[in-house]
Structures are given as C-alpha cells and as structure tokens.
Amino acid sequence: MSENILRRGRLSQTPERKVLEYTTSLPFDREIFESDILCNIAHTRMLMERGIIPEEEGRRIIEELVKIWKEGMEALDLDPSLEDIHMVIENELIRRLGEDVAGKMHTGRSRNDQVATDIRLTLREKVLLILKKLINLEKTLISLAEEHLETLFVGYTHLQHAQPTTYGHHLLSYLSMLERDIQRLLDGYRRINISPLGCGAMATTGFNIDRRRTMELLGFEGLIENSMDGVSTRDFILETMAHLSILGTNLSKICEELILFSTYEFGVIELSDTYTSTSSIMPQKKNPDVAEIARAKLSTLNGNLVSALTILKALPNTYNRDLQEVTPLLWSSVYTILDTLEMVEGMLRTLKVKRERMRELAEGNYSTATELADTLVRECNISFRSAHGIVGEAVRRAIEEGRDLVDVMEEVLKKYNLTLEREKIERALDPMENVKVRKVIGGPAPEEVKRAIGSYLKRIEDYEKEVDNKIEKIENVKKKLLEL
Question: What's the distance, CA 117 to chain centroid?
Fold first, then answer.
C-alpha cells in the first residue's frame, strides 16, 4: 500500500482497505486523468511566471507531467489508499522528482478547485463530441427527408389517423426537435467553460497567483469569481444532465416510432438486419431490439438526473465529499447518449421505407376530411364549425352505410341546401392535393419541405463551424501545454 502523503501528518491511522475502496474515486477518475495533467501544467506554468516556484523546478515538473500523459493512466499506481487521481499523479511525480521539487506543484491550490476544473475540462470535450454526433444525425435525417419529399404518409394524433403528410415532413419533425437539443448544449457550454482554478479550498490563497493566466492557458472563456461558489457549484453538471435527459426523451420518441412503424400492423418501414434480432423459438420473428434497448437505456438519464439533484439539494456551501458521487452519474449519461446517437443514426441511415404501404394508409380512413371541411368554407361561404359538422355527419354515414364518401357527401349537402361540384369534393379528398395545398411555413407541401431543408442545412453548417472552432481551440490549448 502506497504512503498517503495527506494522512501522515494529522491522521495517525490508515483506514481498512474496504473503507479505502468505498471512498476512492479512482474507478471513475479515468475520465479526468488527462484534464488533471493539463490543469497541473497550467497551474505550474503560472507559478513559474509569478516567481512563486523556481523556473527550473517548474520545468522539471512539467516535463514529468508530459511523460505521465504519454504513458497513460494504466502505468500509474492506482492504490485506493491514494484516494483519487490527483494524489495518484502527485504521488508519481514525487516518486520521480522527490518531494522537495514535486511537492511544490500544489502550492496555492486545493484538490477542491482542481477537481472542479478537471470536470469542466473533460465535460466541455464530451459535450462537443455529443454535438458532433447530433449534427451527423441531423445530416442523415436531411438526406432521408430529401428522398421522401413526395412520399405520401399519414400523420397521427392520439395514434389515430389525422391528416395526410409526407414522410419527408415527418422526418423534419425529428430534425426540428433535435436542433433545439443542439442549441441547448451550445448555450450550456458557455457555463461549463468557465474556470474555478485558483479558488483554493474555498477562500483562494495568500500566494500572489494569477487566475486569469490559468484561465487563458486552459482555454476557458471566463472565471467563477466567488471562490466559495467556484469549488461547490455543480449546477453546470445538472444543466448538462438535464439537457441530456431532454435529448434522451427526443431520441426515445424516435425509437418508439421506429418500433411502432415497423410492426406488421403499420408496416411502413423495415429496420436493417444489423439493428434487429430474432426469436429463440419463433423463427419468423424480426425484433427491433436495438431500438428497444435504446428506449430503455435512455430512461436511465432521468434517474441519473434525479439522483444528482437529490445529492446536491441539501448540501451546505463549498466543498463536500458527496460531490464525488455526482460525476459518475454525469459520465454514465454522457456515454449513454454518445452510444445511442450512433445507434439511432445507424437505424435511420439503413432504414427501408415502404412507400406503397404509406400511400395506402394516407388514402384510407378519411384522413382528408379536414381539407373537405376547409373546401366547404371557401366554396360555400359557411363557418368552419358548420362545415366541421357537415363533414362529420357525412363520414359517420359513409362508415355506417359502407358507402363511398363522395356519394354520401353530395346527399348531405343537399340536406343543408348547399352545392359543391363533385370534382371539387374529389379533389379535396385526394391526399396529395391535401399535402400540396399546405404551403404555410412548416407545412408538408413538398416545396415548403424543400425550403425548410435548405434553411436547416444553413443552420447546421453554422452549428458545425461553431463546434469545430471550439474543438480546434481546445486542441491548440493541449498542444501548447504539452509542448512547454
């Protein structure tokens, strides 16, 4: 067991191994290993520049930190008695350089502001990776929507036939909600990318450190100025997890429809064999397992969020060890989203769309009744509510009597002393004519869906540029720090 350089002064006894294993954060500190080294390098560089530690010793510290980075976490002694990755790295540094040199790295700093900084450094990269995958999913949806500008489909409300639309229009509904997820994550990024480094344990330090310099070195865009808040706040984690839960809900909706629409009863799409399985006993089965598992995995995001909220809701101000248990929940949500985005994109990219079945559904079950009522308003100069009642009566009679709606409609109109040419009734009941006439912004008319696609493409290009610029900035930060 490694010597714990923290306990040797104040505490005379080393806890039993089961206590150490219970309290250590090492199993999930893997996520912040590289960030911790970057944080150490930036802090050491600042200490050198301020004359707080000798430049020669600072350079030796940085050289060894770069070596540890290259060797990786696997090369370190991960003894749980060292508690966390911060002490593991510092312990390794002391082993290599001696305590007289390596022990100076932690001057003017606490693990409290150190871990808060590490989490932010790691999370900002994870968020950008999520955004890249989200943008890729949006591009796949656009490509699919372009193929189905005129593929008739029926829209549902209450899971009952509602009005005719196109599958391209339906796919843009996914695109629209996922765009808001992009916007939320980009907005939340601003509150992730601010530096708590230099806040110390909770009251900064008496050393003449330069917080703005470490902010600059690490590529942060601002400071958390209050030191008590800097070490204690995890609201950026809660915000990110909330955004991921909303994204998870949206992805789950897509998965639900992939499952539903691939059933025999709907039969409008077929999932690729890659994303399905069969039964151990029923040889005919093609089960949408990936979509079902995704639907279940995404539900864990809500549980993670509630757990994090519950941990944080009653903590007193500044640092408490409880905070350690929040980050595993965060990383769990992050990886669930990253994995599921890939699965959903793959399912959509390889989807087989059954156009004829979609048309069959659009042409059946009176989904064009709304346009017939609208036509009565335009042609017969009556209120929509009156037209609604007339068409509703005609549909009821057509169902009860097993007759063609056009014939029944003509009889019902005579009852109300109204006339409408048969051709106009038939036109109003044509699903594609229903779609084409709906040219209002956001409507299913092919020309409007095409316009919307162009608008989405422009915005997606802007989002991608913003994300790529942020990634490039982070990569430049790493390159400069690791070259020191």
Answer: 22
* Whole-angstrom distance, CA of residue 359 vs CA of residue 99: 76
- Mean pLDDT per 10-residue run, the chain (484 residues)? 56 71 86 97 98 97 97 89 90 95 96 97 98 98 98 97 98 98 98 98 97 98 97 98 98 98 98 96 96 98 98 95 96 98 98 98 95 96 97 97 96 96 97 97 98 98 98 98 86
* Close Cβ partners of 354 (under 8 Å, ≥ 6 residues apart): 267, 268, 269, 270
pLDDT at 25: 87
Strands (E), 148-298: 152-157, 160-166, 269-270
> Measured between alpha carbons, how far is 380 from 95 in angstroms, rounded to an integer?
91
Query: Which amino acid does the sequence have at 179?
Result: E
Report how far apart, in Å, the C-alpha atoms of 106 and of each of 18, 43, 220, 366 are.
Answer: 28, 8, 21, 73
Alpha-carbon torsion 243, 248, 249, 254, what sign?
positive
User: DSSP code of 208?
Assistant: -
The pair of three-digit structure tokens given for residue 401, joined into one six-digit string: 């009597």
Residues classed as catalytic: 158, 279
Beta strands 160-166 and 352-353, pairing class: unpaired
Q: Which domains does the chain have, with CATH numbers?
A: 7-107 (1.10.275.10), 120-139+167-202+220-359 (1.20.200.10), 369-429 (no CATH)
pTM score > 0.85 for this model? Answer: yes
Distance CA 50, CA 46 (A): 6
Residue 444 vs residues 73, 423, 427, 433: alpha-carbon distances, Å: 53, 23, 17, 11
**Angle subtended at Cα 31 by Cα 26 and Cα 37, rounded to the nearest 5 degrees:** 90
